[in-house]
Write a structure and sequence with these properties.
Blueprint (H helix, E strand, L loop, with lengths): L1 H32 L13 E2 L1 E2 L2 E2 L6 E2 L1 H4 L3
Antiparallel strand pairs: 1-4, 2-3
């Protein structure tokens, strides 16, 4: 058993390392392609920016209640 392990040790280490890297890449791609779909409404926002008297529709410009807790 010891000879077998010594012989294949390098290959086993490389297979585990490559599988780890491929898993990390796969996880990153899946996270980018499938963002969490949150259906927030402007009524849920604590504050939002207004342009020409109309609220901006991009959710990046809305301040949500849980974001206030971070400050």
């Amino acid at each position: 058993m010891r000879k077998w392990m010594k012989k294949w040790q390098g290959l086993i280490i490389w297979v585990v390392a490559i599988a780890f890297v491929v898993g990390m890449i796969w996880w990153s791609v899946v996270e980018i392609r499938n963002p969490e779909v949150e259906n927030y409404t402007i009524e849920q926002a604590v504050a939002y920016l207004v342009k020409d008297g109309k609220p901006i529709e991009r959710k990046d410009y809305w301040l949500m209640p849980w974001e206030i807790d971070d400050f």
